[in-house]
Design a protein that fits this description.
Shape: elongated
CATH architecture: Orthogonal Bundle
Structural class: mainly alpha
Strand content: 5-15%
Number of strands: 2
Strand order of the largest sheet: 1-2
CATH topology: Arc Repressor Mutant, subunit A
CATH superfamily: Winged helix-like DNA-binding domain superfamily/Winged helix DNA-binding domain
Number of domains: 1
Radius of gyration: 18 Å
Helix content: 40-55%
Oligomer: single chain
Length: 142
């Protein structure tokens, strides 16, 4: 299983904002991770629409967490960013061309694995990911 860059970047943005704990710009986040500002703008817009990030317009504006880190479940973020996670082709009945899908047991095995994956992610919050805060602060420059 591999998450999209969009999910990866969304989690990185949340970690950065959680570590910094202050109003931050997309440019600062992009520079810290070496990521395109254009791509991060889309990620931040998505996170804002889903209530994870608050944006402040105007001079001196930027972005910050809209919720406490303890209120942000990693599983919820990944579910939101991976809306079309299909581990195997047959998970998407509209696009599946698999001839054995109706009789194959592999689909249920992968479904249980995906459920276990999300169950593990649901056990963790952004606050958990921020526990090595001092080390993260050194690794993620302002």
């Amino acid at each position: 299983m591999r998450l999209t860059k969009f999910s990866d970047y969304a989690l990185r943005v949340l970690i950065y904002l959680g570590v910094r704990g202050e109003l931050t710009t997309i440019a600062q986040v992009a520079a810290a991770y070496g990521i395109s500002e254009n791509h991060l703008t889309k990620v931040v817009h998505f996170l804002s629409q889903h209530g994870y990030v608050e944006t402040v317009r105007g001079k001196g504006g930027g972005l910050r967490l809209a919720k406490s880190p303890a209120a942000i479940r990693v599983g919820a973020v990944v579910r939101a960013t991976e809306a079309h996670l299909s581990l195997v082709e047959c998970f998407d009945p509209e696009r599946s061309t698999c001839k054995i899908s109706s009789a194959c047991g592999l689909k249920s095995v992968f479904a249980r694995a995906a459920n276990a994956f999300y169950a593990e992610l649901d056990q963790h919050t952004l606050a958990d990911l921020l526990e090595p805060r001092a080390r993260l602060r050194r690794l993620v420059p302002a």
